[in-house]
Design a protein that fits this description.
heterodimer; A: about 350 residues; alpha+beta; 2 domains; six-stranded antiparallel β-barrel; 9 helices; B: about 180 residues
């Protein structure tokens, strides 16, 4: 008896066709476009139906293992759907609550990545040839499964255990992160915690050796005053670059109290660079610049960093350095000590 | 002793022994960890059950079976489910993971596993809906075949068709109707 198209679809979906039948089927699929479209559609439908029943059977096994024994295993799928729905409602309620309490903050934040505010991570397209060679070395290092780095930012050490800080927008959506320090070595880094609102991400560098980082600077606990001279070290290029300027506003973009406004040139790639005052205290982290006002840069204040650290659960120990070893040094000596703690962060994203 | 690969393959295939083994080996650890984060017993169990379902779905992909660390995966996905759905009081900043070891499974990957499962669930929900609208005897016939895995001979007998061939053509008519209802939903 001649098979109808549903029979073909079902036997195919269940893997029950003989090799002769498969050859015949393939032939027909190649020559009959209308048949192929209907067939593909039906196979997908039947496969879905089969998968549903298989999953139901699996769910029934689970239910039997659960400590709260349901009297009727047939009801299982319904129970699961209900709880999923409840979650959705709960999640919605939660986000509504969040919205109300943070409404003002959100309004400020949402406008942030506007025309006027430009984040300073560096897209890889703009990177010169020498930088590409870096990726080549990376790939030859048995990491050929990695996509080329999507962009770079800067990160700097905040404790001797290997914790680094950078901007959240640098790490957002990253598949993997590699930190290259002054010595030229690459270290894999992971995001331990982040705060989207203040645009900070805490990284931990995974090192083979137990060698600790000597962090020479301390962190300012409160905001410092307008007019204070500041400088930064970061990676707008493949080499570390020094820049200086001053604090021009107590608050950041559109009055953001977690930020400073700085008068200092900044370029893509400098996101995540430390802002340091004359005495060697870290007062902030570069986050973005104003696209309409040349030389206006925004930095997240160190108090936002303190807040992030303070909110970490007890399992994570980040001991911020308490002693500022840069206080009495000349600027050149300060830089020499600081640059060992500042690295370029390569951010890898899959192409999807 | 079975290797982790054999266990996960058997679980993907719906083998009850594997489900039981995996379930019981990890239940206490995961549920207690969730409770220590503030989850109620019942919520923790629900999450664990859903994590098992996500694992089952994920394990349909053979490539995953080779790299899967069952315990770590269940722990990570449960943790992610808890963070995303129940921990309403969570304030930013978000703690990404407990330990470095967990970073084998990045949050974004876990998110996409969860989304994939949710999409599947949506489709199944729609399919169940369509099945309900289909009504008997079609729904019953299809259930006997796909769920109870009866042969066409048994179905012909149960439904009073003269032979298996007739029952089969009836089944395909039912399938076509079900698909029509499904696409119209």
């Amino acid at each position: 008896m001649e098979k109808n198209i549903w029979e073909w679809s079902e036997l195919y979906a269940s893997n029950e066709l003989s090799s002769d039948e498969l050859i015949y089927l393939n032939n027909r699929l190649q020559n009959d476009e209308a048949f192929k479209i209907a067939f593909d559609d039906q196979v997908a439908f039947i496969a879905n139906l089969q998968a549903m029943h298989k999953q139901d059977a699996f769910a029934a096994q689970l239910k039997a293992l659960s400590s709260k024994k349901a009297n009727n295993t047939n009801k299982l799928s319904k129970i699961i759907h209900l709880s999923i729905n409840q979650w959705k409602v709960a999640a919605m309620a939660a986000s509504v609550a969040l919205l109300t309490s943070l409404l003002t903050l959100f309004i400020v934040k949402q406008e942030k990545p506007s025309k006027q505010y430009s984040m300073l991570r560096r897209e890889i397209e703009t990177i010169k040839k020498s930088q590409r060679q870096l990726f080549n070395t990376l790939q030859s290092n048995d990491q050929s499964d990695l996509q080329p780095g999507s962009y770079t930012g800067t990160a700097f050490a905040i404790s001797k255990e290997g914790y680094f800080i950078t901007n959240y927008h640098v790490t957002e959506g990253a598949d993997s992160l590699y930190l290259q320090t002054q010595s030229g070595k690459y270290h894999k880094a992971i995001v331990v915690a982040y705060d989207k609102a203040s645009d900070l991400a805490l990284l931990k560098v995974l090192k083979a050796s137990k060698q600790t980082v000597d962090v020479p600077y301390a962190f300012a606990k409160s905001k410092i005053n307008i007019g204070a001279a500041i400088f930064t070290l970061g990676y707008p290029d493949e080499e570390i670059v020094y820049k200086e300027g001053y604090i021009s506003g107590k608050n950041g973009f559109e009055g953001d109290t977690m930020q400073y406004r700085l008068e200092m040139m900044a370029q893509p790639g400098q996101s995540g660079s430390p802002i340091i005052d004359a005495k060697g205290a870290v007062i902030g982290i570069i986050a973005g610049k104003d696209t309409e006002l040349d030389g206006t840069t925004y930095a997240v204040s160190s108090s936002a960093l303190m807040r992030l650290i303070a909110s970490l659960p007890s399992e994570v120990h980040v001991n911020l350095p308490k002693i500022n070893k840069l206080r009495k040094l000349s600027r050149e000596e300060q830089i020499k000590k600081i640059q060992a703690c500042v690295g370029v962060l390569q951010v890898y994203k899959s192409k999807s | 002793m079975n290797t982790e690969f054999e266990i996960i393959a058997a679980l993907a295939d719906g083998k009850e022994w594997a489900t039981k083994l995996v379930y019981e080996a990890n239940a206490a650890i995961v549920i207690n960890a969730l409770k220590s984060k503030g989850a109620a017993q019942e919520d923790a169990e629900d999450i664990y059950q859903e994590a098992m379902l996500i694992l089952y779905n994920k394990a349909q992909d053979e490539a995953f079976r080779f790299t899967c660390k069952i315990g770590t995966y269940l722990y990570a996905i449960s943790n992610n489910l808890w963070l995303k759905r129940f921990d309403k009081n969570r304030r930013s900043p978000i703690l990404q993971t407990d330990t470095e070891q967990l970073m084998v499974y990045v949050e974004s990957a876990l998110d996409s596993d969860m989304e994939f499962f949710a999409e599947k669930e949506q489709q199944f929900l729609k399919l169940r809906n369509a099945m309900q609208q289909l009504g008997d005897p079609c729904a019953k016939l299809l259930n006997n075949f796909y769920k109870k895995e009866m042969t066409m001979q048994e179905i012909a007998h149960a439904f009073g068709y003269t032979n298996a061939e007739n029952a089969k053509s009836q089944k395909y008519k039912c399938l076509a109707r079900l698909k029509k209802i499904y696409s119209d939903l």
